[in-house]
Amino acid sequence: MVVKPQEVIAELYAAGGRIDLNLDRPALLVPARVRPRIEPYQHLLRASVDLPEVVRRAAIFRERITLWFRSGRIGVPVVTLSEALHATVGSCISCGAALAQGNWRCPTCTAALYEALRPTAETTS
Fold first, then answer.
1. Domain boundaries, the chain
2. Pairwise CA distance, residues 31 & 119, whole Å
């Protein structure tokens, strides 16, 4: 069975894991209860997710989501980077990178979106 990085990212965040956005050295934070399930795929995540770029994209996505809600809209917008305004079929809808068939977002944008949607001290106060 082929496991997509996007699936591992979804499982990581569903279990309460996340990416530590420490700007000096971003890292995966994997809860102990799912570590046996995630650890075999950490090499896949490290090879396919640009952790420092997740920091940049998550900040942009979070800002765009915040503006969306402040304007009174509901739901979650399709967040994109400015450089990807003309994404085409077969490319990430957020950054425009080429994708394997059947994906909507690249692994880096998937992680950035999960991180942007994760509640923070600022969003919960």
1. 5-74+108-124
2. 17
